[in-house]
């Protein structure tokens, strides 16, 4: 079968350009980068990239296609590994050689359809640009009368220029998520794999790539993210011939994906963006994309309510009178949503029992949740509830009735993990039971928000049939969340997984907030939230004021510092308000009021992280029109010299004059010439910067600038 196609196809965003060229009958990304001139002849790109034959190398290079295929003789990582046959006949149809047969070009989208009639497969690549973000996915269809075993299938593979030699990955742990990890690329493969069944605390499915010396405001930078909430594989490969590429995919366990005759599948979506003015621009383009998504229209419908969460105040010791008193105190400091955390259901008096029994405990709440919810709502607050529907305790009525509903790999014993097991959401009866249990709560009570938690890995994700079920579990979770969103469109849902263990664009198509970390230590939170901000905007970031002594780190930090760290996200409080003294309570109320006064800016403005001196965390949130800004400056460590380095701001209108004022802390003890503010040109603030005051470590300063 032959077909005639254009040599190259182009898509543009406001600031980016994608060019896909047909090379040796297959689609390949020729250019992905900052926007090219509209009148540029695309054949120039091909001519500029032409190379002579190298010694001891193929006379014709196998293309770095959007799906590199084994049948093409590509020397690097294939984008598809699949085969047919069982037993002694296994391993057939492995060397795919799909060639382009159809192209659809739309204003914002390209679709390439390729077929391999000899091996009976079809590949479909969809690449779409929204704003300045490329969203791309790969489809695979089995055209044979025999089943096709798929070992791996990558989302469209995107090349990197050879001069982009540094990548930034993200590592971490529980209570220490989203930590940056820089690597210099060399020949070979940088590979990150995650088999925890969720995005995980230690292997976030995203990376940045940049030129040497790129920082927040300068240099060519790329961002890549896989919108998938389960096992994944990220690879940046540099071949001996110098070609470099990024490949992202869901990681499939043996036998998870088998396509029946005529059956198809799609990869999770890879999201990519690029900017020639630093890492900050990459983040702002991701933020703009998420803010514009249809799924997040509810976030723009009203201000994001300030939360109070009961966990660190009461843990499992639920007492209606104390909770009502906490609700009164929460309302008095300006809280708008009261969230009842773990311990309200079944036999859940500790983390050893009750998970799976999602009925209100008559022993703790003999009159149900109605009286507490009525009190909360009478105080002008919404009510939210914690749930963990994917999990079950062995000590529960559900497990005793259905022990076969859990994931496991018998005869191997279950790995102990927080006294709980994982329900198999790949099973229809499990999904139906959990949907009905949660839906019953939402129908009975006026609940506006669910904190959906997941407190263990899928360590042994085998189903009752003996097959691996990690991928089916994630797809089952998506199905249940989609059903709940459709049935209860006004209910917001938070993605929590022992903190930030499940944070990605896929789950955020079904949820409204990420619990960024279980650590409420303000100093830890600054680095966690900074890492989170590379991909996600502030209104999706759960950020709470914790207790005076952090329950995880043991550190005692001031209320002004705790407020300053929480103020720049979706703000909340997670502390026993009855233990605060009068000054702490006053400062907390002032901090909540400050957040409310500026949350429209915080939740819509452009984030500009600032490359400050070591031991300083600084950033600015600037209104889209440059009319105002909030600047956060926190001294983490004492400076080596008498004075800190001047801080140069970013994102302001250089020609405008700004009124500078100190809005936090309530009592700035440091002597500082700018304590009473002043009027300054944007150019001076950005190019010369200002001299910060001498601050103690653990002190935060917030400035407000108005044009």
Write up this protein.
Among the domains are: 8-292, Beta-galactosidase, Chain A, domain 5 (Distorted Sandwich); 610-706, Immunoglobulin-like, CATH 2.60.40. The longest helix is centred in the C-terminal third of the chain and has 21 residues, at 582-602. The chain has 707 residues and is of the alpha+beta class. The protein contains twelve helices and 36 strands. Helix content is 19%, strand content 30%. The model has no long low-confidence stretch (mean pLDDT 96). The chain starts with 7 loop residues before the first strand and ends with a strand.
Q: Would you count the extended β strands for me?
A: 36
CATH topology of the domain at 8-292: Beta-galactosidase, Chain A, domain 5
Quaternary status of these chains? single chain
Please tell me the overall pLDDT: 96
Q: Determine the structural class based on helices, strands and strand pairing.
A: alpha+beta
Count helical runs: 12
Rounded radius of gyration (Å): 27 Å
Note the overall shape: globular
CATH C-level name of the domain at 8-292: Mainly Beta
Q: Main β-sheet, in a few words? A: 10 strands, antiparallel
Key attributes of the depicted protein:
707 residues; Beta-galactosidase, Chain A, domain 5; Immunoglobulin-like; 10-stranded antiparallel β-sheet; 8-stranded parallel β-barrel; globular
């Amino acid at each position: 079968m032959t077909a005639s196609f254009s040599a190259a196809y182009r898509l543009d965003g406001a600031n980016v350009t994608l060019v896909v060229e047909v090379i040796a009958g297959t689609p390949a990304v020729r250019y992905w980068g900052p926007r090219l001139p509209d009148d540029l002849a695309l054949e120039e790109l091909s001519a500029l990239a032409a190379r002579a034959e190298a010694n001891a190398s193929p006379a014709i290079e196998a293309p770095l296609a959007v799906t590199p295929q084994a049948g093409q003789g590509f020397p690097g990582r294939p984008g598809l590994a699949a085969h047919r046959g069982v037993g002694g006949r296994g391993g057939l149809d492995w060397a795919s050689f799909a060639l382009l047969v159809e192209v659809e070009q739309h204003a914002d989208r390209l679709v390439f359809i390729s077929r391999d009639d000899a091996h009976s497969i079809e590949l479909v690549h969809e690449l779409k640009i929204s704003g300045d973000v490329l969203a791309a996915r790969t489809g695979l269809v089995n055209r044979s009368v025999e089943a096709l075993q798929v070992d791996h299938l990558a989302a469209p593979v995107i090349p990197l220029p050879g001069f982009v030699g540094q990548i930034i990955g993200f590592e971490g742990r529980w209570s220490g998520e989203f930590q940056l990890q820089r690597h210099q690329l060399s020949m070979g493969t940088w590979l990150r794999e995650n088999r925890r069944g969720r995005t995980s605390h230690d292997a976030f499915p995203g990376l940045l790539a940049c030129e040497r010396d790129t920082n927040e405001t300068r240099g060519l930078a790329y961002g890549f993210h896989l919108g998938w909430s389960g096992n994944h594989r990220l690879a940046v490969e540099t071949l001996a011939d110098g070609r470099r590429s990024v490949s992202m995919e869901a990681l499939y366990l043996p036998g998870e994906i088998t396509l029946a005759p005529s059956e198809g599948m799609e990869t999770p979506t890879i999201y990519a963006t690029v900017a020639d003015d630093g890492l900050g621009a990459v983040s702002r383009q991701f933020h703009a994309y998420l803010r514009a998504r249809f799924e997040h229209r509810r976030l723009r419908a009203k201000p994001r309510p300030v939360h109070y969460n009961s966990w660190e105040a009461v843990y499992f010791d639920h007492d209606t009178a104390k909770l009502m008193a906490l609700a009164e105190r929460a309302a008095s400091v300006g809280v708008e949503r009261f969230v009842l955390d773990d311990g309200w259901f079944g036999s859940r008096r500790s983390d050893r029992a009750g998970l799976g029994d999602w009925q209100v405990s008559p022993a703790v709440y003999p009159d149900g949740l109605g009286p507490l919810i009525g009190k909360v709502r009478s105080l002008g607050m919404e009510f939210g509830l914690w749930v963990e529907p994917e999990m079950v305790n062995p000590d529960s009525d559900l497990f005793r009735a259905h022990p076969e509903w859990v994931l496991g790999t018998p005869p191997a014993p279950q790995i102990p993990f927080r006294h709980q097991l994982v329900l198999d959401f790949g099973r229809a009866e499990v999904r139906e039971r959990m949907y009905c249990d949660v839906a019953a709560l939402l129908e009975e009570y006026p609940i506006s928000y669910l904190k959906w938690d997941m407190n263990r890995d899928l360590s042994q994700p085998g189903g009752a049939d003996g097959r691996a079920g990690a991928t089916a579990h994630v797809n089952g979770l998506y199905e249940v969340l989609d059903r709940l969103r459709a049935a209860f469109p006004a209910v917001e849902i938070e993605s929590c997984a022992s903190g930030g263990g499940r944070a990605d664009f896929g789950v955020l198509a079904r949820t409204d907030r990420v619990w960024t970390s279980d650590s409420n230590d303000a100093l830890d939170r600054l680095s966690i939230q900074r890492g989170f901000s590379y991909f996600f905007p502030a209104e999706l970031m759960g950020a709470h004021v914790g207790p005076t002594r952090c329950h995880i780190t043991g550190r005692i930090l001031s209320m002004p510092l705790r407020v300053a760290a929480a103020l720049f996200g979706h703000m909340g409080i997670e502390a026993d308000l009855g233990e605060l003294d009068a000054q702490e309570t006053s400062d907390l109320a002032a901090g909540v009021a400050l957040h409310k006064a500026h949350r429209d800016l915080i939740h819509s403005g452009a984030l500009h992280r600032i490359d400050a001196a070591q031991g300083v965390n600084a950033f600015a949130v600037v209104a889209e029109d440059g009319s105002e800004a909030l600047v956060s400056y926190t001294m983490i460590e004492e400076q080596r010299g008498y004075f800190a380095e001047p801080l140069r701001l970013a994102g302001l209108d250089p020609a405008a004059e700004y009124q500078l004022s100190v809005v936090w802390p309530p009592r700035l003890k440091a002597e500082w010439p700018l304590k009473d503010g002043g009027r300054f040109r944007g150019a001076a603030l950005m190019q010369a910067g200002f001299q910060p005051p001498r601050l103690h470590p653990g002190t935060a300063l917030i400035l407000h600038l108005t044009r």
